[in-house]
Amino acid sequence: MIATGAARLRPALGESPGPQKAPTPPQLPMALLGPKATAHAADFTLQIAPMLVELAPQVVVSTIGYSNRVPGPLLRVREGQSVTVEVVNETDVPEYVHWHGLFVPPEVDGVEEEGTPPVPPHGRRRYQFVATPAGSRWYHSHTAAMLDLHRGTYTGQFGFLMVDSASDPGRYDQEVFLALHEWEYFLSTVDQDEMPPDPSDPMPEKPRKPDLRQNGLEVNAPLYSINDKILGAGDPLRVQPGERVLMRLLNASAAQIHRLALPGHKFQIVALDGNPVPAPHPVDVIEIAPGERVDAIVKMDNPGIWVLGEIRDGARQAGMGIVVEYGNRQGAAQWTPPPKSRWDYTIFGTAAPHPAPDQTINMVFEKVPGGPGGINHWLVNGREYPHDGEFVFRQGRRYWLVFHNRSDDSHPLHIHRHRFELVELNGKPTAGIMKDTVIVPAYGRATVDLVADHPGLTLFHCHMQLHMDFGFMALFRYA
């Protein structure tokens, strides 16, 4: 795992902090920081280059990564800080680095569709931006991969970007950064990550007549890791009884939604996509889709040696997990299935009313099955990307975007350079939950509230690479 600094202690949520100095971010090893900023030097340098990742002894994969590490260097900055990142591309193809969750202009967002210039092959480019908003952000390749499963988010090109502010998500003693990823992707007829539907799910978008066309190929993977190690291969997360551990979780995979549990412990959810939730709530299982971040505090009150891992046996046994070891404990790590539960964003929100929008934009998502040996294609309002002039914002106006998922897949939907407030999920209202990526369940519906306050081209897409590459994108323009 990535752990930073000595123990940190913050007032618990709801407590008065009393007089104190503004918190100081923990000091990072210089190896993580890159060159110190000067008038002519960048704050950070990232090198895009081929590398080997030793997931375990005798298990080595070849990929493309940032600065010869997976995840890439932890970039930690203060909210409002002017940041310069020098990106050096040592590969033979152009690359884009996307600053996921930041409010940045299109020309530095790291997205071809928005007009960001690429980092040329064997060349370099500087990204300069102001670090805002505060919270758990991340950076990753935004290159189209199509059927090349060795590009884009299929690679090791991802890293944490932490924007610190004067506020904090609660009292904790240890902070760790944990990124989920799959390796050695291949095309398959099996969808590994889709959980069976719950009979109680409302599924408001399910058609009366089922689509009987045969599904196309999906992306699969044989190896999983948390950061750069499969379960049992790396150092454990070492804790002491009574500690409060802040886990900053990121799903940096290209294809799969993951569900994590830690036997005998609960996750107190304090932030989603880096944004504090209005109603922190304990859960047994965290569901996290590609592109999402979840910040959770875990009270270490059940001494032993445990597996923090994916609840699906196949994925956990293939590496998706990490050992949590209490001090002075010995023996094999234990796993027990968590209580049955369903992930529900709305429990972290409130019942506050929403102001009426200036306009409602309906977005309907459908799958065109690829059939045997083919690739599924995806439609937004009946068309594959591009959607020239179809989606238009006017600066300062409030929009409700209604996502109608008329497919049998769950989709993590991401909108660039903005964040939105969740209004309802499958008819269940909520308020106060701010996100930049939201899972819309199979045959489900979600409504989000977005204020158009960052002019410029704005990309919207499913954060599953195969879906995005084969039609599941739209471009919003400002009038």
Q: What level of helicity do the residues show?
A: under 10%
Which band does the percent of strand residues land in?
A: 35-45%
Low-confidence stretches: 4-38
Overall residue-averaged pLDDT value: 91
Largest sheet: 7 strands, mixed
End-to-end Cα distance, whole Å, is: 45 Å
Count the DSSP helices.
3
Overall strand count: 34
What is the molecular shape? globular
- Estimated radius of gyration: 21 Å
Derived structural class: mainly beta
Helix and strand topology:
Elements: E1 2-3, H1 30-33, E2 44-56, E3 59-66, E4 75-78, E5 82-89, E6 97-100, E7 124-130, E8 135-141, E9 158-164, E10 174-183, E11 186-188, E12 218-220, E13 223-226, E14 237-239, E15 244-251, E16 258-261, E17 267-272, E18 275-283, E19 286-288, E20 293-299, E21 305-310, H2 313-317, E22 321-326, E23 359-368, E24 377-380, E25 391-393, E26 398-405, E27 411-415, E28 420-425, E29 428-429, E30 434-435, E31 437-440, E32 445-451, E33 458-462, H3 465-469, E34 473-478
Parallel strand pairs: 2-5, 4-9, 10-15, 14-22, 23-26, 25-34
Antiparallel strand pairs: 1-10, 2-3, 5-7, 6-8, 8-9, 10-13, 11-12, 15-20, 16-19, 16-21, 17-18, 17-20, 21-22, 23-24, 26-32, 27-31, 27-33, 28-29, 28-30, 28-32, 33-34
